[in-house]
Design goal:
- The chain is mostly helical.
- Among the domains are: 93 residues; 149 residues, E3 ubiquitin-protein ligase SopA (Pectate Lyase C-like, 3 Solenoid), CATH 2.160.20.80.
- The chain is 41% helix and 3% strand.
- A two-stranded antiparallel ribbon has the order 1-2. A two-stranded antiparallel sheet has the order 3-4.
- Strand 1 and strand 2 form a beta hairpin.
- It is flat, with a radius of gyration of 30 Å.
- About 2% of the residues have low confidence.
């Protein structure tokens, strides 16, 4: 059938040369014009992008030079850099923060970093860890001359620029709640600091931290009540491969406030939750192998199918907790309180060394 049509078309072209030739020429010209126009549009677009990039680069260099001017000009340059679409802007602002001593300008830098969004988290975390290490080194060496300055800078990376004016990492986490998937804050020092020079306490109550990476982070005594650490992925179903699940492996959460937190499926292997408040927290299917839950409060917590192999729950309060089908192989359960706990697995009462009530 196809061959017949091809023959018929060829016969028609032979019989109608007067019409066929102009049509062929017109079709060829149209194709050439379309190709020409497309090429010109591509060239113009590329040229426009290069011009924009050149203007951005010139503006960036101008702003960098302005950072060595008067305080007013420096503040203007910092705020302008926050609006600049240049990958070097965040790095420059973080470097500037590591050297700045003027509290007012430090606050301005923080506002600029918040405007840059979650892209500022990783470089801020790197600075935070560096300052934390410097602070610990000064404590061990007994050198007190630089300690106040390092303490203030460390505090600035965490949260407070001025009283009642939160910024830094904590502000970004709060402001971009629910948009922190895969944000990397490994080893970040966000722990409570009672230092008189730079007091700090992390408050992220009710913040959506699902998908965030916080392995080995210092979060002791943090207020994380009702915070969300896991959520459904694009398919809208919990428990599937695309879920947004936080990584808290090896994190320091001693005495942290996690009442009502949603932590199902969360990775908490090797974490320190000693003395933490986890009342009514949802830890179903959580990975808690080799974690330290000694003296933790888990009243009414959901721990169904949780992995607790090798975990320490010495002195933990498991009142009204749900532990069905959880893995407690090798767990330390000395002095555990489990009044009215849901122990549907018949082996659990023996492990706890008490009768099911």
């Amino acid at each position: 059938m196809v061959q017949t049509r091809g023959v018929n078309l060829w016969e028609w072209l032979r019989q109608n040369k007067v019409i066929a030739l102009p049509l062929a020429v017109f079709a060829g010209m149209s194709l050439m014009m379309a190709t020409f126009v497309g090429t010109q549009l591509y060239i113009q677009r590329t040229k426009h992008q290069h011009q924009l990039q050149e203007r951005q680069d010139k503006l960036f260099l101008t702003l960098v030079q302005q950072l060595s001017s008067t305080e007013g000009e420096r503040e203007t340059a910092i705020l302008a850099m926050a609006r600049l679409d240049d990958p070097g802007a965040v790095t420059t602002l973080v470097d500037l923060l590591s050297q700045e001593t003027n509290p007012s300008l430090m606050s301005t830098i923080h506002r600029a970093l918040i405007n840059k969004g979650t892209t500022a988290l990783e470089p801020l975390t790197i600075l935070n860890k560096s300052l934390s290490n410097d602070y610990l080194a000064l404590q061990q060496s007994g050198d007190l001359s630089e300690k106040p300055k390092i303490a203030r800078r460390l505090r600035f990376t965490k949260e407070a620029c001025r009283e009642a004016d939160p910024c830094g990492i904590a502000k970004i986490l709060t402001f971009y709640s629910g948009k922190l998937h895969s944000a990397n804050l490994e080893g970040a020092d966000l722990g409570t600091d009672g230092n008189e020079i730079a007091q700090f306490a992390l408050v992220l109550e009710g913040v959506d931290l699902s998908g965030i990476n916080l392995p080995k982070a210092i979060l002791d005594r943090a207020n994380l009540k009702n915070s969300i650490f896991s959520s459904a992925g694009k398919d809208g179903r919990v428990g599937t491969l695309d879920d947004e699940i936080a990584n808290l492996r090896g994190a320091n959460l001693t005495n942290a406030h996690l009442t009502g937190a949603l932590m199902s499926y969360v990775s908490l292997e090797g974490s320190n939750l000693m003395g933490a408040s986890l009342d009514r927290a949802n830890l179903a299917n959580a990975q808690l192998n080799n974690s330290n839950l000694s003296s933790a409060r888990l009243i009414g917590a959901q721990l169904q199918q949780a992995m607790l192999a090798g975990a320490s729950l010495t002195g933990a309060n498991l009142g009204v907790v749900q532990l069905s089908q959880s893995n407690l192989v090798g767990a330390n359960l000395g002095q555990v309180k489990a009044v009215s706990a849901d122990l549907k697995d018949p082996t659990l009462p023996d492990l706890l060394g008490m009768e099911q009530t």
